[in-house]
Amino acid sequence: MAKAKLMDFDKALELYEPVLGFEVHVELNTETKMFSAAPNNFGAAPNTNLTPVCLGLPGSLPVVNEQAVRYSISLGLALGCSIAESSRFARKNYFYPDMAKNYQISQYDEPIAYEGEVEIELASGRVIHVPIERAHMEEDAGKLTHMGGSTGRIQGAEYSMVDYNRAGVPLVEIVTKPIVGTNEDAPEVGRQYVSIIRDMVIDLGISDAKMERGNLRCDANISLRPRGQEKLGTRTETKNVNSLRSVERAVRYEIQRQAYILSNGGSITQETRHWHEDTGETSAGRPKSDADDYRYFPEPDLLPVQPTAQLIEELRAQLPEAPTLRYRRLKGEWGFTDLEFQDIQNSGLLTEVSATVAAGASPQAARKWWTGEIARVANVQGVEATSLVSAENVAALAALVDAGTLTDKLARQVLEGVIAGEGTPQQVVDARGLAVVSDDGALIIAIDEALAAQPDVLEKIRDGKVQAAGAVIGAVMKAMRGQADAARVRELVLERAQA
Amino acid sequence: MPETSSSPEITPEVVRHLSELAKIQLGEDEITLLTADLGQIVSNIAKVSEVATPDIPATSHPIPLQNVFRPDVVGDNVLTAEQALSGAPEQFEGRFVVSAILGEEQ
Amino acid sequence: MTQTDLTRLSAADLSAKLASGEVSSVETTAAHLERIAEVDSEVHAFLHINARAHEVAASIDARRAAGEELGPLAGVPLAIKDVLVTTDMPSTSGSKILEGWMSPYDATVVARSRAAGLVPLGKTNMDEFAMGSSTEHSAYGPTHNPWDLTRIPGGSGGGSAAAVAAFETPLALGSDTGGSIRQPAHVTGTVGVKPTYGAVSRYGAIALASSLDQVGPCSRSVLDAGLLQDVIAGHDHHDSTSLPDAWPSMAAAAREGATGQVLKGLRVGVVKQLQGEGFQTGVTQRFTESLALLEAQGAEIVEIDAPHFEYAVAAYYLILPAEASSNLAKFDSVRFGLRVTPEGGGTVDHVMAATREAGFGPEVKRRIILGTYALSAGYYDAYYGSAQKVRTLIQRDFASAFSRVDVLASPSAPTTAFRLGEKLEDPMAMYLNDVTTIPANLAGIPGISVPNGLAPEDGLPVGIQFMAPAREDARLYRVGAALEALVEDQWGGPLWAQAPELRAGKGVN
């Protein structure tokens, strides 16, 4: 595949205005599937989470999961949408082996939620209102594994295998209206929008929202129009943009790619494009064609969903604070700089930091631990930071540092023990004997030994060359195997040198 | 739902396109036969539009019901993997096997 | 009592004899299996015989002997239309694409029948995926009408109706999307009921058109049909369109109707659009006679105008193919059923298209292509959308009619059984055969077909259809049983007593 030519980003924005649109699919964490009473859990053995309905067996019929409807309404409300008095399901007909019935039950002309708005705030403090067109309920497809040929790729595979466990998992698809006026902020808007949706569904408790597992999936629609033109340009739909960073990169890439084509007299093909995480590029997929005749029609096996005003108000009353409002509030309460707060948001650890502060840690300590050492270990191990340690243990760790029981260095060792499953920070401290030696007596003995061993240094200190104390401090810390407070050692060294 | 347009003649090209949408491979003689049959049938049934004026609501379900839900509880009809795969024309290691897929993931 | 006699008994009579211990289920089952062995090579009502029927019957006998309280139909044989999935017998829906397919679950109506102690004898023949009015579209060869083996037994449930008419079973399950229970009943001199949409669960009924399909009973008497509907009806949480209503006993309604009291003051509407041109003389004659009988018993006959009925067939042949084209998409060679790989392999697309080409018969392809057309971009409003509006208009016609009358009556079908092959090459003529039965499916209301004589010109059975408002199935059983009593009084016995003896065949094929 020839590398696409790109225009400089700033130059592209001089000539064109980007118009964005996002389709975000959220997998709901219900106990059972959208239309069948099969278990909805990740990681089960292939083809074990199935009823006749998930497999589309002859004679099987769908029945709507009430919890999925409630979750969808809650999400609709959180998106600022109106909830339809009556919504219904439709069949989207197309053949694909991961779709057991060869139609997807979705919502078409009557979605459950419509016309909303999500407020996001950029690092610069700029506020953008993302207009939401609709949020609708549908079912997920099964999973294909491509075998033979070049490994794991659809192209050149000799055959494919299907696991239908994911088939029928409840999804809410959130569709924005065209987002205009973002200009050079376009990539950040994309990232921040998806990040807000993720925080929203986590706060609502309706999705595990793990992008790496596909709980949250984003398709990004991007088009450019020449500055001053009213009419929208031809858009591309970039699929599988499944990390926050990728959203940002994909938007930037498409703007640069399209700008190059347009400025050279070319035109954009309306098509789906695939995002490649490894190369940071998109590649052409299927052009829109006759094959996209999905022959939607109302699902005859299902009835309209008509939530009562009482139910809607009940769910509205339970809504958590909107993410952007919460960010604003927390930033103020915690006294963070823009950069510090952004650091937390970018790492996706706001929930953890909040919980750690709630458990008694200072905001700065909570931020420092989560975005620092814990994130580092998570990165090394290739796992989620949240899976490593609980907010309570982080708070306990911070408390031990505050009390002077641990130095930062010791605390990192304790964290290592906690992550290794050795217990709470206090238990690790006890078991490994890692506490700071705060007994001046023991320190003085070590200091006197060190001074005696380095008489030249002692001379220098006595001569007022205080910086020479470093060598002795180092020797003492070494002798104490690091379990001493260096500042206290320094104080004592200066004291003993004069003695 | 999709917009209206007047019903065109059923041509072999139309039937061929429909067979692609419906994923049925048809021979030339079948297409010829179906083109004739469909033309006759469509001319007989197109009259529904005579009385289907904009003021008439559509009926999707013969008996109106709404809000038919089930509780979010695992049901009594969960299949074992063996049952799920019992009808599979081809399977391997607990999965259904299909020929190579040409084209893109949906 | 001889075994032949056992096959002539109604389910209600068998029930009494089984309960009293006069006969056993094993004897009853054996008698019917023997009858099947004798005549089914000629009739071809069955696609599969239950190898475990004897065993099931023996277990019912054992439970009864142990003093267990059993339902009224415990031990009575039952034939099951192949559209209903069963765990112990293949379920093909009359199609090659499902040849030999074993379902891992039972249809709700099958599970309920088993729980009630009915003994499944086998699976009955049908037009492929219930598309047809003659069973000639079965991938496994047509069923023959026991009254005249050269004629069709109706369809799509010709197998169930013929099995009942040929005394191979007293009871059968059918499904009715546009008349597939009532029209076969009409041409075979049997009783068939399409319940209110949602009265009987569709879970496990291989879908043809989801908003039209309804499972119902086939039998030789109205009471027997009522006994079976009492077993299979009622709410099912596996079917969203299943009605949560509590139903009165249909058997009780039939017994009440047989007294004849229900006819006094009953207002019977006769739909102008469901008679006259296109109706065979003998069919019209028997219909008129039946109306006179009802009138003589105190019923009031009211002419009803249902102006939109003339659009019913057109609407039906848009809605049905549209829904069917989607329902039948699952037959793709991936999870179950036939797989045909083109020469030299091919992609999954090629395999699916080749499988569907080889696995579906011509009528199924015709309707899938038609339905695909009706739903495709640009035509939806003109076709499917308009058809759904016609549905509203037909419901309004019924609402207006039922504000004036208690039941509607019509001939169950325009003609008696036509000859096998006669309409096979003319799909539109075949479709028009359903003109009388389709309106009830479009509106979701119940309908019953009761034998009301033989057409003088060909000596073949004719039925009368009654229709009632939605949820008023019991009314149909009362009126149906009342008319049944009146005509049987005239004939001095049931119509089936006039059926010709079938010559013994070479055994079941």
TrEMBL record, chain A:
InterPro entries: Asn/Gln-tRNA_amidoTrfase_suB/E, Asn/Gln-tRNA_Trfase_suB/E_cat, Asn/Gln_amidotransferase, Asn/Gln_tRNA_amidoTrase-B-like, GatB, GatB_Yqey_C_2, Gln-tRNA_amidoTrfase_suB_CS, Gln_synth/guanido_kin_cat_dom. It comes from the Bacteria. Residues 351-497 form the Asn/Gln amidotransferase domain. Residues 271-292 are annotated as: Disordered. One of its GO terms (biological process) is glutaminyl-tRNAGln biosynthesis via transamidation. It catalyses: L-aspartyl-tRNA(Asn) + L-glutamine + ATP + H2O = L-asparaginyl-tRNA(Asn) + L-glutamate + ADP + phosphate + 2 H(+); L-glutamyl-tRNA(Gln) + L-glutamine + ATP + H2O = L-glutaminyl-tRNA(Gln) + L-glutamate + ADP + phosphate + H(+). Signal peptide: none annotated. Its EC number is 6.3.5.-. Allows the formation of correctly charged Asn-tRNA(Asn) or Gln-tRNA(Gln) through the transamidation of misacylated Asp-tRNA(Asn) or Glu-tRNA(Gln) in organisms which lack either or both of asparaginyl-tRNA or glutaminyl-tRNA synthetases. The reaction takes place in the presence of glutamine and ATP through an activated phospho-Asp-tRNA(Asn) or phospho-Glu-tRNA(Gln). PANTHER family: GLUTAMYL-TRNA GLN AMIDOTRANSFERASE SUBUNIT B MITOCHONDRIAL AND PROKARYOTIC PET112-RELATED, GLUTAMYL-TRNA(GLN) AMIDOTRANSFERASE SUBUNIT B, MITOCHONDRIAL. This is Aspartyl/glutamyl-tRNA(Asn/Gln) amidotransferase subunit B. The gene is gatB.
Automatic annotation (TrEMBL), chain B:
It comes from the Bacteria. Its EC number is 6.3.5.-. GO terms for biological process: regulation of translational fidelity; translation. InterPro entries: Asp/Glu-ADT_sf_sub_c, GatC. The keyword Nucleotide-binding applies. Keywords: ATP-binding, Ligase, Nucleotide-binding, Protein biosynthesis, Transferase. The keyword Ligase applies. It holds the Pfam family GatC. It catalyses: L-aspartyl-tRNA(Asn) + L-glutamine + ATP + H2O = L-asparaginyl-tRNA(Asn) + L-glutamate + ADP + phosphate + 2 H(+); L-glutamyl-tRNA(Gln) + L-glutamine + ATP + H2O = L-glutaminyl-tRNA(Gln) + L-glutamate + ADP + phosphate + H(+). GO terms for molecular function: asparaginyl-tRNA synthase (glutamine-hydrolyzing) activity; ATP binding; glutaminyl-tRNA synthase (glutamine-hydrolyzing) activity; transferase activity. Heterotrimer of A, B and C subunits. Belongs to the GatC family. Allows the formation of correctly charged Asn-tRNA(Asn) or Gln-tRNA(Gln) through the transamidation of misacylated Asp-tRNA(Asn) or Glu-tRNA(Gln) in organisms which lack either or both of asparaginyl-tRNA or glutaminyl-tRNA synthetases. The reaction takes place in the presence of glutamine and ATP through an activated phospho-Asp-tRNA(Asn) or phospho-Glu-tRNA(Gln). This is Aspartyl/glutamyl-tRNA(Asn/Gln) amidotransferase subunit C. It comes from Klugiella xanthotipulae. The lineage of its organism: Bacteria, Bacillati, Actinomycetota, Actinomycetes, Micrococcales.
UniProtKB/TrEMBL annotation, chain C:
Gene3D superfamilies: Amidase signature (AS) domain (3.90.1300.10). Coiled coil: none annotated. GO terms for biological process: translation. InterPro entries: Amidase (IPR000120), Amidase_CS (IPR020556), Amidase_dom (IPR023631), AS_sf (IPR036928), GatA (IPR004412). Its EC number is 6.3.5.7. GO terms for molecular function: ATP binding; glutaminyl-tRNA synthase (glutamine-hydrolyzing) activity; transferase activity. It holds the Pfam family Amidase. The active site is at 81 (charge relay system), 156 (charge relay system), 180 (acyl-ester intermediate). Residues 27-476 form the Amidase domain. Keywords: ATP-binding, Ligase, Nucleotide-binding, Protein biosynthesis, Transferase. It catalyses: L-glutamyl-tRNA(Gln) + L-glutamine + ATP + H2O = L-glutaminyl-tRNA(Gln) + L-glutamate + ADP + phosphate + H(+). One of its GO terms (cellular component) is glutamyl-tRNA(Gln) amidotransferase complex. PANTHER family: GLUTAMYL-TRNA(GLN) AMIDOTRANSFERASE SUBUNIT A (PTHR11895:SF151), TRANSAMIDASE (PTHR11895). Allows the formation of correctly charged Gln-tRNA(Gln) through the transamidation of misacylated Glu-tRNA(Gln) in organisms which lack glutaminyl-tRNA synthetase. The reaction takes place in the presence of glutamine and ATP through an activated gamma-phospho-Glu-tRNA(Gln). Heterotrimer of A, B and C subunits. Belongs to the amidase family. GatA subfamily. NCBIfam families: gatA. This is Glutamyl-tRNA(Gln) amidotransferase subunit A. It comes from Klugiella xanthotipulae. The lineage of its organism: Bacteria, Bacillati, Actinomycetota, Actinomycetes, Micrococcales.
